[in-house]
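Late entry, zinc ion complex.
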Amino acid sequence: MKFSEIEYERPNVQELQEKFGHLINLFNKAESFDEQDALIRNINDLRMEFQTLGTIASIKYSIDTNDKQFEEEQDFYDSNSPVFDGLVHQYYTAIVGSKFRPQLEKKWGKQLFDVAEVTLKTFSQEILEDLKKENELRTDYSKLLASAKIFFDGEEKNLQGLIPYMESTDREIRKAANEAKWKFFSDNEEEFDRLFDDLVKLRDRIAKKLGYKNFVQMGYDRMGRTDYNSEMVSKFRSQVEKFIVPIAVKLKQKQQSRLGLESFKYYDQPLDYKSGNAKPHGSPDWIVSCAKNMYSELSPETNEFFNFMLDNEMMDLVNKKGKDTGGYCTFIEKYKAPFIFSNFNGTMGDIEVLTHEAGHAFQAYSSRNFEIPEYFFPTSEACEIHSMSMEFLTWPWMNCFFKDQTEKFKYSHLKGSVIFIPYGVSVDEFQHWVYENPNATPLERKQAWLAIEKKYLPYIDYDNNEFLEKGGRWQQQRHIYMSPFYYIDYCLAQICAFQFWKKALENREQALVDYLRLCRAGGSKSFLGLVETANLISPFEDGCLESFMGVIDQWLESFDDASVN
Ligand code: ZN
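Prediction complete; structure with ligand written out below:
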């Protein structure tokens, strides 16, 4: 089924509720394991039907945000998805309390029940109104970001439109673009503060209503984390401070001398080479044909996958008018089809987005035959292993995209991945502080951010930008407002992807075998279970970072700056 041929019709929620309620009733009254087992299939069919329609509507809307029909459909799902969540909640309550649970667990796996239990903890009818309020505040933040109208280079731009200027080889342009961006944040500082203050206090209240001490554990539960806690994450951050921060500092010094700068300012960070960052050599169609060849050579499995994506039109890659920003991969459950969305804009980011989202999509494709929706994707830190590792496993084909700039690309890619981690753990540590101190003032939060930044990002020089020097940088980080505690995921996954990078250098075949096994396992295991499945060292284990950081450091050290400038 090609994407363009898939029909869409708005689901009938009342009918869904009736059918669902009926099946739950039968489930609760069932007298045998076989009966309940069959009902689980029926219930999941209903869920997948609804989810499929919701996914199609959201893809269509993101491809053309000016489409009135699908704009209305978005409103429909915004107000009806809590109803759907309530039904899933009933289903989870039923299976968790089933008298045939041991047999069901044996058949469907323990992970389904762990997911159900952790989801149940984070919801009760009592917090329904609070959840609606939380959604409103999220939307307000999103709207505030989208409202940015910044006059730059002779025309009005949004925040996204400033990005190419921030990579400019002209330092004055980089500086001006950054100052224009942060002026928008500074002009709206009070509103950004108020929204966050409301969100923090609201989340704290919700957590306490549900019996949590504060929002921290609830945040972990919302992310579906069943096998690690905040103490383990805190230990992980100390490992980053010890083993990665010093290397990041060194990389910044190397970058500064490569750029020939007397001092290294915050706006110099996105530019890696005097001659400009690596760029793909060609049109989007040509990029796709390179990718087709790459996936045909990478493995028979990736070949089948990429042809499936092309034959069924499951990719919308090029930036066009009316399209939503960013990139994502989703899964159309009923058709067992992943879908990739991106906005190619001619930078090296195009190739990173393509291989990243293809990693997510390849996992979804590899585990598409699971019969329960919980297993189509794992928790997000595990999902990012597929995507970030795919970025590295495709390195041998980068010369097709980058020609003479391939080495520039590889260096920027690996260096950028290392540099990201200290920032990532800063965002994570900040959120722990925020939700452990829910009554702190906006000013105190900014001071806390500054102290954390000093520890993990000691090289930051804000060049007298008042807003940034006051501790406001985190206000641009969507996750902090939208999905609390969703950030360490990228760091944990990157640690796993680095292990794939190293393994691919030493034994490419073994790396691919492990990667395939991981993708096929989908969401059938918890994060650490999947880490084991992939033959990786847990990021929480002592010695994990040392096991590969030396090799990465050496590879980056041996890079010849003079050859690329
Ligand atoms: Zn991703």
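The mean pLDDT is 95. Will revisit in the morning.
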